[in-house]
Amino acid sequence: MMIDQKNKYRLRLNSRIIGYAEETEDGLLFKGREPLWWMRGKPNYSQIDKFVGIQDKFHRDIYENDLVNYRLNAASQMRKGIILLDEKEKSFGILDLESKHFTHLFLGEICLFNSEKMEIYSHLFNHPELENKFNKL
C-alpha cells in the first residue's frame, strides 16, 4: 500500500539520526527523533535520506538506506535487502543482498511489495562493510 508520498526526509549527522523534516505549505517542518517531539530552528545535519512512500509491517516509514527483511510472496523465505534510489530511473527499490538483483518498489502507482511482508532491521549507514559495497547502484 502506498501512502501519501509527501516529501519527507530523515536527517543525519554522519551515521546518527538527529531528526526528520517534512515539506508543508509553510516550508520545512523539522521534527525530533521521536514522533511527537518537535525542534526549534534548523537542525545541524550532513545527510538526508528520502522517504520512499511506504511503511513496514510495524507502520514505520521506510527511507532510502534502510536495511529490510522482506518476502516476495507468502510462501517465500525472508530475504534481506537495502532500500536504494535508482538515480537513472529516479525510483526507489530493494537491492537483494544475496542475489544482488534490484527490484523497483513501484510500477507506476502500484507498490510491488506488501508492507506486511517487510520490516526495517537496521540502516546501511550503520554497516560500513555494506555501505562501501552497495551505496550506489
Report on the structure:
By secondary structure, this protein is mainly beta. The chain has one domain (8-134). The chain has 1 helix and 12 strands, in the order ββββββββββββα. The longest helix is centred in the last third of the chain and has 7 residues, at 128-134.
Strand order of the largest sheet: 3-2-1-4-5
* Strand and helix order: EEEEEEEEEEEEH
User: Could you give the count of β-strands?
Assistant: 12
Shape from CA axes? globular
Q: What fraction of the residues are assigned to beta strands by DSSP? A: over 45%
Gyration radius, in Å:
15 Å
Structural class: mainly beta
> Number of helical segments?
1
Mean pLDDT comes to 87
Task: Point out poorly predicted stretches.
Answer: none
The percentage helix is under 10%
Number of domains as seen in the coordinates: 1
* N-C termini distance: 25 Å
> What about the largest sheet?
5 strands, antiparallel
InterPro entries: YopX-like_C (IPR023385)
Protein name: YopX protein
